[in-house]
């Protein structure tokens, strides 16, 4: 029940295309859902986050869509660029703890 | 504002030895969490510290321990190292636990030989 399932494991997108990464969870106590971007040799960097009281949050080219009833959320990267090539992790957390439960990660490659 | 600082960046240890890793959180942040990242298991929560007290612990053996000092800096210790402990160890800091964003350091790459 603590798991967060992420798909796909890897993704190849052409420059300018839309990258979509999906996550699903079971624990309805989760109330914070961040996405992290990680480049090789670096720590994960917070990209965007959402709470379940909103269905969508947009920051620049990055959008989180959240479906509370389906217990799913997704990251959309619009106008994908080669510089977006990285590993993306979704995560979930309950409000009274700092413990993040991570998905397995998606390796994104954006081809020029 | 400086980010999360982890030292050392790289470490090579021999099986059976022990190791101590250090994490300095972002100034003003009081909560520190530790994670282990491996290709097979992904990112796994180790433990969380707030106000010098361990608040949460992941599913790791007792060889993994940590502490937090009054200035919020944290250390984690792994005793009797095993080959399987080779991983990237990441520290994340947040202002207070549970309600604010967590920011990660660059990690310490531990190799056990």
In short:
The complex is a heterodimer of chains A (112) and B (113). Chain A is mainly beta and 112 residues long.
Regions of chain B with pLDDT < 50 over 5+ consecutive residues?
Answer: none
Most extensive contact: A-B, 24 and 27 residues
Order of helices and strands of chain A: EEEEEEEEEEE
- Mass-distribution shape of chain A: globular
Radius of gyration of chain A: 13 Å
Q: Tally the helices of chain A: what do you get?
A: 0
Task: Report the helical percentage of chain B.
Answer: under 10%
Please specify the SSE layout and strand pairing.
The complex is a heterodimer of chains A (112) and B (113).
Chain A: E1 4-7, E2 10-14, E3 19-25, E4 30-38, E5 45-50, E6 56-59, E7 62-67, E8 72-77, E9 86-94, E10 101-102, E11 106-111
Parallel strand pairs in A: 2-11
Antiparallel strand pairs in A: 1-3, 3-8, 4-5, 4-9, 6-7, 7-8, 9-10, 9-11
Chain B: E1 5-7, E2 10-13, E3 19-24, E4 31-38, E5 42-50, E6 53-57, E7 64-68, E8 74-78, E9 87-94, E10 103-104, E11 108-112
Parallel strand pairs in B: 2-11
Antiparallel strand pairs in B: 1-3, 3-8, 4-5, 4-9, 5-6, 7-8, 9-10, 9-11
Description:
The complex is a heterodimer of chains A (112) and B (113). By secondary structure, chain A is mostly beta strands. In chain A, 0% of the residues lie in helices and 57% in strands. Chain A has no helices and eleven strands. In chain A, strands 2, 4, 5, 9, 10 and 11 form a six-stranded mixed sheet that branches. Chain A has a five-stranded antiparallel sheet with strand order 1-3-8-7-6, with no helix packed on it. The N and C termini of chain A lie far apart (40 Å). Chain B has 113 residues and is mainly beta. Chain B contains no helices and eleven strands. The radius of gyration of chain B is 13 Å and the shape is globular. The mean pLDDT of chain B is 94.
């Amino acid at each position: 029940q603590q798991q967060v399932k992420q798909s796909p494991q890897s993704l190849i997108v052409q420059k300018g295309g839309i990258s979509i990464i999906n996550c699903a969870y079971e624990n309805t106590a989760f109330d914070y859902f961040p996405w992290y971007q990680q480049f090789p040799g670096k720590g994960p960097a917070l990209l965007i986050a959402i709470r379940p009281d909103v269905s969508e949050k947009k920051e620049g080219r990055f959008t989180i869509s959240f479906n509370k009833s389906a217990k799913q959320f997704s990251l959309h990267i619009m106008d994908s660029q080669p510089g977006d090539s990285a590993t993306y992790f979704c995560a979930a957390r309950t409000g009274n703890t700092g413990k993040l439960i991570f998905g397995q990660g998606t390796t994104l490659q954006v081809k020029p | 504002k400086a980010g999360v600082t982890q030292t050392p960046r790289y470490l090579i240890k021999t099986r059976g030895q022990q190791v101590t890793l250090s994490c300095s959180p972002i100034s003003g942040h009081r909560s520190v969490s530790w994670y282990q990242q491996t290709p097979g298991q992904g990112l796994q929560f180790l433990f969380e510290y707030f106000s010098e007290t361990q608040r949460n612990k992941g599913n790791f053996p007792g060889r993994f321990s940590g502490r937090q000092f009054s200035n919020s800096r944290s250390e984690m210790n792994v005793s009797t190292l095993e080959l399987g402990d080779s991983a990237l160890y990441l520290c994340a800091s947040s202002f207070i636990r549970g309600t604010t964003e967590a920011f990660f350091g660059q990690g310490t790459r531990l190799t056990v030989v």
